[in-house]
Amino acid sequence: MKKPEFLDFSQERIRVLHYTWIAFFVTFYIWFNMAPIATTMLNSLDWLTPEHIKILAICNVALTIPARIIVGALIDKYGPRVVFSGLLVIMAIPAIFFAFGNSFIQLAVARLFLGSIGAGFVIGIKMVSNWFPPKMIGRAEGLYAGWGNFGSAFAAMTLPWFALTVLKDWINLGEDSWRYALALNGMVSLVYGVMYYFLVKDMPENKRSKAVKGKAEPMTVTSYGDLIQYLLWSFPLVGAMGALAWRIGKIQIDGEAMIPDEGLYVIYAVLVLLYVGHVIKTLQVNLPNLKKGIPENEKYNWGSVAALNSTYFANFGAELAVVSMLPMFFETTFSSLVGANNQPIMTATLAGIIASSFAFVNLFARPLGGFLSDTMKNRKRTMIIYMVGIAIGFILMGFIGKAGPVEYNGINELVPTFNGLWWLVVAVIITVSCSIFVQGAEGATFAIIPMINKKMTGQIAGMAGAYGNVGAVIYLIIYSLVDTNTFFFIASAGASFSTIYCLFFLKEPEGSFAEEH
């Protein structure tokens, strides 16, 4: 009996695929190791507040925006093996610093730098595209992304138990047990980063002679209209950083703003200069080529890049925001739920396990999205169907809880929309169903990206990936300003906008079901 394709480890490309999703898994486990133990941190540190947790969640995705753009260019120049190994090794440093931070400033700075580990995703996209033909790319990218993305769910499922049961109760490390759990994450990143360098190659031997290293510079476009689109779509990448600085600047520490007005003006000025520099460099790279004329066989549709930016903003951006807040959402919303012995049912560990259901379905939903994109013979239609499902799913999640009585702090805490354990079961079903569409849409997105322009897969994946983080920053800022129900409704609106944008601007890529590139 023939082995399933993706379990045939005699093939080098299959071994590379599995080594690479493990590297991605490590990055996501570390990237989202704070959410499952947020309530544990609040109980352990008397100076930490729920608002601090929300800001740390925003910091966690902030620098991933420029990191994904930079990494996207670096992998086109140096290859994915070196870049992925370096990222894993370097990010072990802020992971350990965060674990032992003793002030909010230390935690925020460490979390900002640690957010760069989220750039690992786009590295694997390039690695997988180097090893698999178009007819298999959706499934291969889906398996890579789905199983790697499961790292966030695995963190939610295991970290509370490992920190509170194993380290605190069994080994008696006390209230600092969560710190040692996070520090161990950093050590795993360091070790696997070294291992990955020796386990994989950038591409098959028969492709090395055809490989051309790119330059770490802005994307090249093939029309003046595409050039305008590129410059317009580049602005939110720095605009999100400005929004993040504004939100952090509103935090008061001992009566003082975390970032004073003068500091904010400096940050805004730097971001404007960065954008202006990007515009100048982009024009320098593209105008000479456009004046000479672009051969027809080198042209590609930049509108598809923009459309996929929007889909990743709406699906992966929403996912990053949701997995950052979902454990606390379930723990607080269902805190009044008690069992037969009148003991609370919803503990930190149970909330983490339930919340992990949103990311758990990555194991099959994201590969399924890539598989359907490969087999339905119309990648655009597959993409649109998934985006419609996301819009409906987030609307339903907005009805899991409702506003309860006003607490002593003047805030309406959420309570379950209906009483009883049965509603918790329904809430989990709604969460999982929504997640299936979210993860599937991510798989469908990256089943299309390698088809747009093979020479710039890294840069296109980097930009789309960065837009996922722009979405996460925007959604988390919104979450910090509005109630949870409104947050879910806004996420639904974002998916609806992306659906309409894809309908008009996403084009079915040519040759996307060919045997070879």
TrEMBL record:
The chain crosses the membrane at residues 16-35, 55-75, 82-100, 112-132, 144-166, 178-200, 221-245, 265-283, 304-325, 345-364, 384-401, 421-448, 460-481, 487-506. One of its GO terms (molecular function) is nitrate transmembrane transporter activity. It comes from the Bacteria. It is found in: Membrane. It holds the Pfam family MFS_1. SUPFAM superfamilies: MFS general substrate transporter. One of its GO terms (cellular component) is membrane. The keyword Membrane applies. GO terms for biological process: nitrate assimilation. It is a multi-pass membrane protein. Its main location: membrane. Keywords: Membrane, Nitrate assimilation, Transmembrane, Transmembrane helix. Residues 16-510 form the Major facilitator superfamily (MFS) profile domain. PANTHER family: HIGH-AFFINITY NITRATE TRANSPORTER 2.3. Belongs to the major facilitator superfamily. Nitrate/nitrite porter (TC 2.A.1.8) family. This is MFS transporter, NNP family, nitrate/nitrite transporter. It comes from Algoriphagus alkaliphilus.
